[in-house]
Design brief:
The chain is built from 4 helices and no strands. The termini are far apart. Helix 1 crosses helix 2. It has a domain of 30 residues. By secondary structure, the protein is mainly alpha-helical. The relative contact order is 0.07.
Length: 76
Amino acid sequence: MATLNVKNLSDALYRKLQKCARQQHRSVAQEVKHILSEALDRPEPVPIMSLEGLGKEIWKGVDAAEYVEKERRSWD
């Protein structure tokens, strides 16, 4: 099993790690492994244009991220 050393970790970030670890009843090392696993084991997002049967013809030529951002701004 590999070992990872992290250098120059700020005291503030380490304190945050300690706090999260305490809240989850883990050691700091266990918390770091958990955070890394969560971040790296996520499935790749599926592009909206590759979805079947969701009206993708309506979205043709539309930047979905831009559309969603406009929608979110309209809620304010």
